[in-house]
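User:
Care to share a sequence and C-alpha cells?

Assistant:
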Amino acid sequence: MESIRTITTGFLGLGNIGAGVWRLIEQTRGEIAAREGVRFSVKRVLVRDTLKRRDVSVPKPILTTDADDVLSDPDITLVVEALGGEQPAADYIRRALISGKSVVTANKLALATHWQELLETACVSGSCLYFEPGVCGAIPVIRAITDSLQANTIERLYGIINGTTNYILSQMSAPYAGQGPAPSAGGLSGQCGVSYADALFEAQRLGLAEPDPTADVEGGDAACKLSILATLAFRAHVPLEGLFRRGITTITPVDVAYGRELGYAIKLLAVAKRVGDKVEARVHPTFVPLSHPLASVNGSLNAVYLYGHACGELMFYGRGAGDAPTASAVVSDMIAAARSGCRGGERAYRMTGTVAMETDWVSRYFIRLQAVDQPGVLGAIAGILGRHGVSIASMRQTTGDGRAPLLFVTHMARESDVRSALGEIDESLAAIENVIYVEEGI
C-alpha cells in the first residue's frame, strides 16, 4: 500500500476563509488521505488574538501572534494565506516564497497589486504560488485557463465576478426575474425593482456585503480579479492600474426597467478583449442581451464566459464567494501543491511582458437624458451626436411636466467620441442622467 505523505502546513489567518479551510480539512482528512495519499498537518496558525472564541476547534498551542513562527519554521513547506487585504499579506507571501515554502492564497488584492514581484519570487525560489480561490471561489476558471486551454488563443473574456453587486442588481431587477420584457417604459410606476440603497441594505443584512461595501460596489474587487484573469488569459501582465473601473452606485430601477424593455439585463461586467496588439480591460455596469447565458446569472452567483480560437465559447458558472466554496478551492490548491512536492514555481505563469492597454475602446451605449419638452430639442441632440460620429440605433421619447425622458441606444462608437458629444449637450437642452455600456457581441 502506498504510504501517505504528510505536508506540514502553516496558516496565516483564521477568519472566515481560514476557519472554512480548517473545517474542510478536518471533514475530509480521511478521504484526502485515501484518494490523494496526502495528509495536511497544521503546525502553526497566525491569529490576532489567541484567546478569541472561534467557531472551529483549533488546539491553543499551535496559535501564534508572531508571523515568524510560520514564515521562519523550516518544517513548514506549505503556507495558506487567509489574511485578506494588501498588506501585510503581500509581504508575508513574498517572504514565504523566498524561504522556499509554497503558498496558497485567496487574496486577489495582494496578487493584483504585487503580481510581477510575487510571480518572479516564486520562479526564482522554485516554490509554488497557487491562487485559484482568489477569483470566483469554487469555480475552477484559473485552472481551466492555465492547465486546460493552453492550446488556445483566448480572444475575449467576460465575467460576473463579484457576487455582492450581482445580488444587488438582481434585487433591483427582481420584478422581471424569469419573465419576458418589462411593460412599456412609459408606465414604469409600480414596475421598477427596489432601489440601490434598499438592495444594498438587504445584501448587508444577509452578510453578502461588508459594512463598508466600497470595494464591491465601486468595482475594485472585480477589477482585481479581472487583472488576474486577463493576465492569465492573454499571457501578459494586465496591470490593475491600467483597468477602467466604474461601480453600480448610479444605477437606478428606472435604468433597469428601460433596459429590460429594450431586451437587456444589467450586470457589473468585467470585460477583457484582444484588440490588435493591445488589450482592453474594463469593469462597469453593462446591458447584456436577455438571450445571452450571462443575463440569467442572478443572485450572488458568478460566471466567466470566454472565447478561445480553438475551443470556441465556454462558460464557467457557480458559487464565487463564501467560506465553504472558497475553502473548496483552497484545499484543492493545497492538494495540487502537495502533488508537485511543493516545488516548481514557474508552473503555467510564464508571461510575455506587460501589454499595451487600449483606452479608447468601441462599444454601444445606452444614454438616458431628461430633455426639455419643446420642438427641435430631439433634432439638436441627435445632431450633436452625429457630428461626433455617434450613430443612433434606436431611441425613445415620452413627454410630461416640461421635461421628457429621452433614451438612445447607439451603434458601435468610440468612447472618446461619445464623451465629446455628451460634453457638448448643454443643460438648456437636456440633463444627462445615465450612460451605460451595451455589449451585444458577447
Remarks:
- The two ends are 51 Å apart (CA to CA).
- The first strand starts at residue 5 and ends at 12.
- Residues 177-190 have pLDDT under 50 and may be disordered.
